[in-house]
Every structure is written in structure tokens, then in C-alpha cells.
Amino acid sequence: MRIDATGITASAGGRRVLSDVTLNLQAGAFVGLIGPNGAGKTTLLRILAGLAPPAAGTVAFDGADAARLGRRALARRIAYLAQDGPVHWPLRAEALAMLGRLPHRGMLGGVTAADRAAVERALARTDTLHLRRRIVGTLSGGERMRVLLARTLATEAALLLADEPVAALDPRHQLETMALLRDAARSGTGVVAVLHDLTLAARFCDRLILLSDGAVLADGPPDQTLTDANLRDAYGIAAHRGRVGDRPFLLPWTALSTQGEPAR
Amino acid sequence: MSRLPLDERIPYAALVAGLAVLTLALGLASVAIGYVPFDLGAAFGDLLGGRATLPALVLAELRIPRAALGLLVGFSLGLTGAAMQGWLRNPLAEPGLVGVSSAAALGAVVVFYSGLSATVALALPLGGMAGAAAAALLLNVMAARGAGTTTLVIGGIAINSLAGSLTALALNLAPNPYAALEIVFWLMGSLADRSTDQLWLVLPPMLAGWALTLSGARALDALTLGEDTARSLGFNLAALRVRLIAGAALAVGSAVSVTGAVGFVGLVGPHLLRPLVGARPGRLLPVSGLAGASLTLAADIAVRLLPTRPELKLGVVTALIGAPFLIALIWRLRREEP
């Protein structure tokens, strides 16, 4: 599975949100989509998921456009996790995860053994097996996010697009979820996650796409995208850098004034 | 762990079967109960033997159409209520909310008012269906212009009050007090003295409406997670909207056009059953249809057993039970919110 986006432009409320974004995604890599608030990350992710058409430009899924592929075929190949995804009815966690199997089910056919097995795997991978009988509304924010992630994994799509999957989690579950997404990528699924935590992004992702003002400012391995110049231009921050063993890490440390000087 | 919750204790198939048996039992009870002393066995014997005796006529022309219409109307209201709640993701939605019911009532009142109902036997139900179709079309046009669910609810309220005020206008201009009284009584909703012709007229559109609505079950499940996620799961929400609005117009439009306004069944049915299906919107559809049928049949039996004469109108009884239920529901919803 690959997605080729070429010259993507999008507007919202008369404001240009994305201008001339070109990128390609494929299975087997953990890609972080980063950038300051309002940079157009969610808009881009929705366009890549085939949920919204771009104002200009093309998105090709395995070389075909969304209409030719058909929405059900696309739904089996791309799983999408919405930002703080709503759950409107008091479903049990297991029933919610089972919704991820909808693209695989026929018009009338019931739940198959394959559906059950996929849901079991997804619940196990997100460490939510013990929550299966719980009603989603009674879960903590972190538990809820993991159940929603289990729903996404249950689809067993080739590509997983997740909008801020770790925003609501405590540090332990952030680390576990990032490791889980990385492992999913290692086992062949393509993962694209919108992330705000640059430390986690630098540590876990294979590739980072840095959006700034609706354009791709940098696209490549973390050490090439999270340079001091890029951090200053995109976020207006300076980072503290260090090493843990042989691995580098980065920690956002100082907000810069518009002239690039440390702000008070 | 103490006792399992209800939705885990009762398998879904058993729930459907149990409700179907209850509905059929209430249907039979509705056939058996009436104002004249009546030998049900003999009547059935005469009817099946093709003997046109009085009991056989009462059974075929009065009792069976009344029970069958009660079942059909109740199922339509319960099913559509569950579908509207799932679609708008709002537990307070019901067929009346989106304006289909009141537009159907207006259509029937216009027929009443024009005097067509006296000359053409089936003009009344046809007028009701036309009203429902007009409301459905208007809703679809609003939704196709990108209106969100809140806008649709407000649009439904607008259609409701427009239809309500036009109905009041018709009453105001009614040529004589008897015409006005007839309209008012009809609006209250009743299953009394309905004919087999009306039954055959509304059956096809109702079945079509049910099929359209039930075909949206999977998409309604997906909508639990919001519109973006439902779309990402491969569902065409524009097609779902057309199916649900058309389904509501066909099922509820024809229901209202033969019975008048029978309120609250579409609201109460889904609520009673939601905890028993683990709140899954797709599974809720058939069972709340059956619950609606049971509620309507039970209420229609009650109006005949109550000693008031002339009998209470069915819509009055469902509203008397349903309105306090709605207040209790809002009370509980308010408490659940932080």
C-alpha cells in the first residue's frame, strides 16, 4: 500500500490551510506528522485518509484515485483514528473494537472467527483485554484512547493514520503506545501519526514530516528534520539536546522571541 | 463480579424472539378484545370456512385490520425512532422531531379540509404520505447543502412548527364546527374503525420504509464513532441520509396518514431496549421496532378496556404515558452529564 500526494492545496473558511504539499507514504515505516498548531496536520491527514478531497492536487492510493478504488476497498486498506474521537453511545470496549471489522463484513453476514481473532489481537496489543466488558464512557482518558486504538488496529489495514494518538496518555502509556506503533510499522503496517511531543517523535519515528504554515518545511529522518534552524522557523523554540547511551534525544526548552532570541 | 449486566445475560437472538412472541401475543389479544361479546373460535372458523356470518365479518373487517395496523404502525414508529436517534446521535430524537409526522398530519388535514376525503376513499392516507414526502424532501435538501445534525434538528423543529401552524390555520378556517371537530379528533390518533383497504394501502410503503431503514444498520453502528470515522470505515453517509429520510417518510408518513399522530412510541421504544443490546445502534433497530409494536398494541388494548366512552384516543394515551417518560429521561440525562 502506498499513498502518493501531489501538489495538495486545501482551504478552510477562506484561509489557505495547505499549499502545494507533495509527499508519499508506504507500508513498513513509522512516520510522524509534526508542526505547530494550525500548520494543517489534521487537514492533511484527512486528505491522505481519503476523507476530504483536496482543493487542488491529487492523492493516489496504490496508483488509483479513491473513487476508482471504492470506499470499502479503501477502508480495508487505511485505518483512521480521529483526534479525540467521540463515542456517542455507551458501548462496551469489545463491541467498540469490533467496529474496526466493519469494512470486512458483508451486508448481512455476521461476525466471523477471523473478526473475533483480529479483535483479540488488537485488544491484546493495546493492553485492553481486561477492559473488554467495560462501557467506554466509564474508562479513563488513557484507557479510552487505547480502546479506540484497538478499534483502529482491528481493521488490520495496510496503513494506519492516527491523529494525536498519544495526546491523552500518561508517560507510561505514551511510551507503550509509541512502541506499539513502531512495532506495527516493523511488522509491515505503515503508520502515520500526528504528534506534538517532539521528544517522542524523535525517539520512535523513522521519518518526520514537519509542516509549517501549510507547507512541508522538512521531510526525512528525525535528525535531519529536527534541526535547530527548523525548530526555530516552525515552532519558534530552541531545544536542549543530550544523549542516553548512544542514542540522542531532544527536549523543547526555550520559547524564542520573533527575532530568534530567548524570550523571557 | 456480581450479576452480569442485562445485555450479556440475554442473547440477542433470544431477545428478538421474545419480543416477537410478545408482539404476536398482544396482536392476538387485540383481536380477541372488543366491545361486543364475541366467540373468537367460531369467528375464525367461519372466516376460514368462507361463511359470511356476522362474527366472521367483524373479525375480518374490524378486529384484524385494527390489530394489524397497530402492529405495523408501532413497528414503524419504534424502528424509525431508533434510526433517527442513531443517525442524529441524539437520544431525544424521534420521528416527530424531524417534522415528518407533523407534515404527514398536515397533508391529511388538507385532504380533510378540501372535502376530498368524503369523495375518494383513500385520499386521506395518500394526503398524509404526500405531506411526509414533502417534509423528507425538504430535510434532504437541507442536509445535502451540508447541514450538520444540529442544523437538521433545528430544521425539523421549523418544519414541525410550520406544519403545526398550517394545521391550526386549516382548523381556523374550517367551514363548520363539525369539520373542525373531526380534524381535531383525527389528529389525536386512533386505530378505531380502520379498514382493510387502508391496511393494504399502507403495507407496501411501510415495508419499503423498513427495508431502507434496516439497510442502514451497519452505517449507524459506525456513526457511533462520529462522521469522519464512519466514512473511514467505508460508509457513504450521503447515501445513508437519503435512505433514512426516505425510510422515515415512507414508514412514518403512511403510519400517521392512517392513524393520526401517535406520539412518543418512537422515543420510548428505543430507550427501553438500548440497555438490552449493549447500546449498539444497528442491533437496536429491529428490537425497538418490535417494542414499538408491543407498546402500540398494548395502548390500543388499554383504550378499549378503560371504561371511558367514547374510547380515549390512542395518541392521548401514548402521550399521557410518554410525556412523563420524556421528562424522566431528560432528568436522567442531565444527571449523567458532569
What's this model, at a glance?
Chain A: Part of the ABC transporter complex HmuTUV involved in hemin import. Responsible for energy coupling to the transport system. The complex is a heterodimer of chains A (264) and B (338). In chain A, 33% of the residues lie in helices and 29% in strands.
Jot down its keywords.
heterodimer; A: alpha/beta; 29% strand; globular; B: 338 residues; mainly alpha; 0% strand; transmembrane helix (chain B); membrane (chain B)
Q: How would you characterize the overall build of this protein?
A:
The complex is a heterodimer of chains A (264) and B (338). Chain A is an alpha/beta fold and 264 residues long. Chain A has 2 domains: 2-226, 3-Layer(aba) Sandwich (Rossmann fold); 227-264, no CATH class. Chain A contains 10 helices and 11 strands. Chain A has a 6-stranded mixed beta sheet with strand order 5-6-7-3-8-9, sandwiched between helices. The longest helix of chain A is centred in the C-terminal third of the chain and has 16 residues, at 171-186. The termini of chain A are far apart. The relative contact order of chain A is 0.16. The mean pLDDT of chain A is 91. Chain B has 338 residues and is mainly α. Chain B has one domain: ABC transporter involved in vitamin B12 uptake, BtuC, CATH 1.10.3470.10. Chain B is built from 16 helices and no strands. The longest helix of chain B is centred in the N-terminal third of the chain and has 35 residues, at 54-88. The mean pLDDT of chain B is 86. Classes of the chains: A alpha/beta (264), B mainly alpha (338). Chain A: Belongs to the ABC transporter superfamily. Chain A: InterPro entries: AAA+_ATPase, ABC_transporter-like_ATP-bd, ABC_transporter-like_CS, P-loop_NTPase. Chain A: This is ABC transporter ATP-binding protein.
